[in-house]
Design brief:
Shape: globular
Structural class: alpha+beta
Number of strands: 10
Distance between the termini: 18 Å
Helix content: 25-40%
Strand order of the largest sheet: 3-7-2-6-4-5
Number of helices: 9
Radius of gyration: 19 Å
Largest sheet: 6 strands, mixed
Strand content: 15-25%
Order of helices and strands: HEEHHEHEHEHEHHHEEEE
Length: 260
Amino acid sequence: AYSIAANDAERLQGNSDVSVITGPAYQYVYVSMNMSDETLKDHKVRQALTEAIDIPSLVEAVYGDSAQVADSYMSPSVAYHVSMEPKTYDPEDAKKLLAEAGYDDGLELTIKMAEDNNFSTMAEIIQGMWAEVGVTANIESMEQATYLEKANAGEVQIGMASTNAVSGDPDNAMMIWRTTAVNAIQACDPKIDEYLNAGASEFDTEKRAEIYKEVQQYMWNQDYAVPVCFPNVTYATRSNVSGLQCNPGSTPDLAKVVLK
């Protein structure tokens, strides 16, 4: 079984007939903010929404020990990952920023997401944290196909999202931020395109590393999303199965699997 939830993994580890296999992944979980939305175009609003979330507590509540708090916009398993300064949890500053942005009387936003237990829990916790700074978040959960249709049409203001860079290359990990991408992000920053085009066309590894360091720092500073976590890959097998190894892209080599 693939994609074992954190609470299920903990339960299965106590079963002698089951083996739980876990390891680092390419996956990145984040709260998306529609970059073309008039309200979210204001950096003060994006910064306030980020500062209003206690990210370590959120990760602990949803994922437990099966994920690490995100320190960039791509996983440490992806080439050229660079660790950034942790996001600050500061509700009081979030209130000030919202007031400066013209929302001292409150702000109402809508969170949309595909049906998923982890995302539902995340959304409810974030809803409560945002309420403490005067932000009302309405939550709408729907089937995956419906969500993708709305996301691609630019109808998702705030989303619960994840991306999986199956190749382990930063161009793969960051392609969702290109202005040509069609997704909930609705990317509209050509500066990101410049960075990613330069990185994709550079063959010198040191120069390429510097380019991706710069784009990670730039996006981190812009608060284009709320970085949440990097979940582990977690599989489970019967105890008579051996040879299944973790693959960060969740594409294990089944040719190595042996049944005892």
